[in-house]
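Appendix B: complex inputs.
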Amino acid sequence: MRQSINYDDLVRPDAVHGSVYTDPDIFADELQRIYAKGWVYVGHESEIPNTGDFKRSTIGTQPIILCRDKQNKLQVLFNRCRHRAATVCQEDCGNANRFRCEYHGWTYDLHGTLTGIPYEDGYNNLDKSQLALSKPACLEFYRGFIFASIPEPKISLQQSLGKPTMDQIDYFCDLSPCGEVLVQAGSAKLVYNGSWKLQMENSIDGYHPNFTHQSFFKTITRMTGAKIDTFNGDSIAGVRALGQGNTHIDYAAYNHVSQRKDARLHGLKSTSWGRKYYDDMVAAHGQKRAEDVIVVGGTHMNIFPNLVVLGQQVRTIRPIRPDRTEVELAPALLKDVPDELNTMRIRQFEQFYSPHGGGIHDDIEMFNRVQEGVQCTMDPWLIFQRGLHREEQLPDGTVRGQVTDETSQRAMWQHWLKVMQEND
Amino acid sequence: MTKNSSGELIQRVESFLYQEAQLMDDNNYQGWLDLFDQECNYWIPSNREDLDPSKHISILYCDRSMLEQHIKRLIEGKAFAQSPKSRSIRSVSNVLVAQQGSMIDVTANFLVTELRGHQQNIHAGRSEYSLRVANSDFLIQKKKVILLGIDEPQDNVTFLL
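Resulting structure:
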């Protein structure tokens, strides 16, 4: 049996040991302690709007089917036949009224109940009622986002998210006048040769954009004339630790500076569809909230361990191996808004996030480089010290740093450490 | 599809496609962009159902000005997913040509072997073109690239397609 790992030796307040990105034993522990024991994001309600709709996904590396049953209830079923473990659903998404294992013909309904065994008289005392597809103990929802916990959860989803995190999800959803987003415009799927934590660290990293994404910012400047100084060392944008390892890039103060705020609202109201959207937002949320949500522009956040809600998109991170990760990026359309606005969100998404677009692959390139770099084990510590001396605790309990500070990564890693120790 | 097209036209179209393939393999971004008409559409869909690109995401969906910006970004050399650049060799085959008045519709299969970061990848697909005859040559008004792995998780596909 392998020696147990002392995680205290791997995560310091301001540094992380390189082995957390490479060690297969640590990866196995992560699947057990993080993914198989806590709340994990599994999908959005709008992805399966109709009875029988299903989507395949994973909890850690465990295959699941997310589906909507005949009572219009959402189900998460493990995609593993109770007989001899073959997957019972092969398509990434679709509509079905049952799941049938094609190996020996065992059949399950949309609740996972075992409804058919071929040549059943060959079994003696087999209790079919005990052989439903396995399910996580608990599913909970927040504004259409579905989370699963494999064991009975120690705390509710709302406690796990916490108010600052839910406030940010509200910002994202309230960009729709009726408060609903629709994850129905397809998705871009990317794979890279690196640890899943690299994508989590990067999603809320306000230090890298001016360097990794300089070619994209130059393009924006060329197209619009706008000079992007959001991520400068003296920017008033910030990063925040929201609690429970959830983290946030906070553009509110930066975007609310009067000339930016006025330009954004004026630009929106200069088209007829933009004007209609603005009026609908004000009618639904009141002027103050509507303008705040539009100006801040949704949110930019991580929800530990595997969800990113950012700009116009919902991003799911799927660990495959210590050095292999799949990322699914899906634009969220806004319900009850002019078509022009949703088409614009789709085009903006593609410009940066599509596999042929101008942004995400420059990030992915860096993950590949880090994963290669950490093969060097001399001086193994990665430095996450930036801004430690200047971060401040806010009255709501969140911790804020300047946008280029590593406050968010420190918070993620401290939570990782806590979970890896507690869930032994 | 080819019954209306003369052998000479097919040869000229094939020659045009081979030149395009060579420009892409050479990472000659500006040369490749120059093959497109002033009004053009470049589309790499991401689903097999041919869903409306105004309601569904694509791998890329560009008009002329977006395509220019996309190419300029690659030319400037700080697009790190292409630093170092991919090396590639591609073959074009199964060329079908149909003339529709002043426009020529073309489909062709491609197979590109791409090498980057010590890793060799193979991508296959079919491209559909609408070409306009301009002087003695062609300009691309529409290009749609249908990858075999259209809806699969993508590795780095930031080289020209």
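Residues 46 and 151 of chain B are 5 Å apart (CA to CA).
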